[in-house]
Design brief:
This protein is of the alpha/beta class. It contains 15 helices and eight strands.
Length: about 325
């Protein structure tokens, strides 16, 4: 079975340094320095892939990316990340494909960077991590990014990002448990993913997928809560929008999902029921998740048909990212 994983990450020493120096977003990943070798060194990525039966990774910079730097650094930082990624891919063209870091906080420049990265660097789409300075992508100022993606017929991967301090204080801080507990609840345990699902819900409800039918959206973590609520959202959507299609029609037409290392059978079966294998891809979230041989073995042993297994393992990703 050929295996392609699509939410896998890299970084550069320059970006790590800039992030620590300039970003106002706290880095609540205490393992960033420990993970540096597997983020920065592509030969270590290849060795890991060889050991665990992974044929290709679709690589991106997420969470701590140049997107969250102050505006004066974000544009140049994103360009540097993308050119470094393209250079690394050129060394291992059969093992990696890339998604462009977008300086979404400067939307016009983000649209330009997406076009440059796709047409000049060979990237397979772009990635945006979380809300942008507390704003969601349905704000009209971000529409230029969707227009660029639609023109290119490419994919926007919507990755979770660090939520705002105000959100964290209201929703997750508590006197009943520790500050670390609040950080985890606001982050990888729950909060990142809830916000990422809200991002998708707002994009569809605002009509952006109706207006831009050539845009594809990719999300991890089994859809960031959306699949388990899609029928309920359909039930309420006519009260708040006059779009010609149901929410679920846009979702099933233009959104693609992967597990991001959440190798859990109940969620997989739910997503398979709601979306079909032709909208599901595989992902480990490397190196933040290092599941080793489980990355391959879980899918090999999953209760799916062989046709579904092949689509999830590589076929859907090949079609979506033109691999």
């Amino acid at each position: 079975m050929k295996l392609i994983t699509v939410e896998e990450h890299y970084d550069t020493d320059e970006n790590i340094s800039q992030f620590k120096k300039y970003s106002e977003v706290k880095n609540n990943n205490p393992w960033q320095d420990k993970l540096r070798p597997k983020l920065v060194d592509f030969s270590q990525k290849v060795a890991y892939m060889e050991e665990n039966g992974i044929d290709m990774q679709v690589i991106s910079d997420a969470g701590n990316s140049a997107q969250v730097l102050p505006d004066q650094y974000a544009v140049a930082g994103a360009r540097a990340q993308n050119e470094t990624l393209a250079e690394n891919i050129s060394r291992y063209p059969d093992r990696f494909a890339g998604l462009a870091t977008l300086p979404a906080n400067v939307p016009d420049k983000a649209a330009e960077e997406l076009e440059y990265a796709v047409t000049k660097l060979g990237m397979k789409g772009g990635i945006i991590s979380g809300s942008i300075n507390g704003q969601f992508l349905d704000d009209p100022k971000f529409e230029v990014i969707f227009a660029a993606a639609d023109k290119l017929g490419t994919t926007l991967y919507l990755h979770p990002g660090v939520i705002s301090n105000d959100q964290k204080a209201m929703l997750y801080d508590s006197k009943a448990y520790s500050a670390l507990g609040a950080n985890m609840m606001a982050g990888a345990m729950w909060g990142w993913h809830m916000e990422a699902g809200i991002q998708v819900m707002r994009i569809i409800t605002a009509g952006l997928l109706e207006k831009y039918p050539n845009v594809k959206i990719a999300t991890g973590h089994w859809g960031e809560f959306i699949p388990m609520f899609v029928e309920r959202i359909d039930g309420f959507s006519p009260m708040i929008t006059d779009l010609p299609l149901k929410f679920s029609d846009y979702y099933r037409r233009q959104v693609y999902l992967s597990p991001s290392g959440m190798f859990t059978a109940p969620q997989m079966q739910l997503v398979l029921t709601e979306m079909g294998a032709d909208h599901i891809m595989w992902s480990e979230d490397f190196p933040y998740v290092q599941a080793g041989s489980t990355t391959r073995e879980f899918l090999e042993q999953a209760d799916v048909t062989e046709e579904q297994r092949e689509a999830i393992a590589h076929g859907t990703a090949e079609k979506l990212f033109n691999l």
